[in-house]
Amino acid sequence: MSSRFLFHRLLQMLVTLFVMSFLVYALIGLMPGDPVDLMLAGNPHITPEDAIRLKALYGLDKPLLERYAHWGLALLGGDAGYSRLYGLPVMQVLLPRLLNTAVLMGLSLALTLVIALPLGVYAAQRPQSPADKLINVFCLSGMSLPAFWLSLLLISLFVVKLGWLPASATLSNPLSLLLPVLTLTIGGLAIYIRHMRSAMIEALRADHIKTARAKGCSDSRVTWNHAFKNALPPVVTILMLDLGALMSGAVTVETIFAYPGMGKLMFDAVMGNDFNLAMVGFLLLTSFVMLGNFMADVTYALLDPRVESGTANGHE
């Protein structure tokens, strides 16, 4: 892989991140009420003159671009400000929640891949067979189940009726993660199985696969040594993009299971008008999404060198 390819992708990522940071800052600024207005609403002893002085102190009386530049420079210097809801530095609030989300979503993704990839290959080897139809029915069911309904169903069965598992989830109790991981895995399985099946069916129809079979290669060798590698790029692309999105957490699942992750934190920050926490949190999540896109480009180029040279579609 050439350094030029990496440089162009990194430059695109940085430019996109810069634009997104401004958009996030501007959109958060459109939320009703600023920190000083909230202080006025919560403290009747603050006079209008005090409000004017506070807005000048926090720079809220300055134009948007000037405020954005000041905020961005402070953030680059390591000062992300304080959270209004928690009374702590923003990064002290964000980092533990980010770790919680990484553990929960990482476990779910790993379990999803372990089950989905073999099932997708198995279904592709037997298109339109009873097993393939059964797997497709499972995928459609998994995609149709709302996360909140599935969460409540699992709680009703394993917590209320059987009493086997706790209703809330924390890292300190690994067993409590089982239900939220299972909820997220069922939804993810449908997506990855269908992508793997589609990519594998296309790969098995390629001419070089027919040639390998004509030479006497076994089905397992043709499937795993030849077709599987060619079917991986689109699945890996989805995976890399998911790695970025996974850091945003799952608001519904985290809320139902009272799990302290990024999804619930960002929801609380927006609803509670915690400007600093919301801005830095959304920017951090945007960074992970951009990083996921970059990793997808790099991984795709490694799996298919034609992507780097621009010939993946058969033309320059």
Q: SS-based structural class?
A: mainly alpha
The end-to-end distance, rounded to whole angstroms, is 17 Å
Low-pLDDT stretches:
none
**So how many helices?**
14
Order of helices and strands: HHHHHHHHHHHHHH
What integer is the average pLDDT?
Answer: 80
Main beta sheet: none
Shape: flat
Q: Which range does the strand content fall in?
A: under 5%
Helix content: over 70%
Radius of gyration: 25 Å
Number of strands: 0
Structural write-up:
By secondary structure, the chain is an all-alpha fold. It contains 14 helices and no strands. Helix 1 (3-29) runs antiparallel to helix 13 (275-303) and helix 12 runs antiparallel to helix 13. It is flat, with a radius of gyration of 25 Å. The mean pLDDT is 80.
List the helices and strands and how they pair.
Layout: H1 3-29, H2 35-42, H3 48-57, H4 64-76, H5 90-125, H6 130-144, H7 147-161, H8 178-204, H9 207-214, H10 219-246, H11 251-256, H12 262-271, H13 275-303, H14 306-309
Features:
mainly alpha; 316 residues
Summarize the structure.
This protein is mainly alpha-helical. Helix content is 75%, strand content 0%. It has helices spanning 3-29, 35-42, 48-57, 64-76, 90-125, 130-144, 147-161, 178-204, 207-214, 219-246, 251-256, 262-271, 275-303, 306-309.
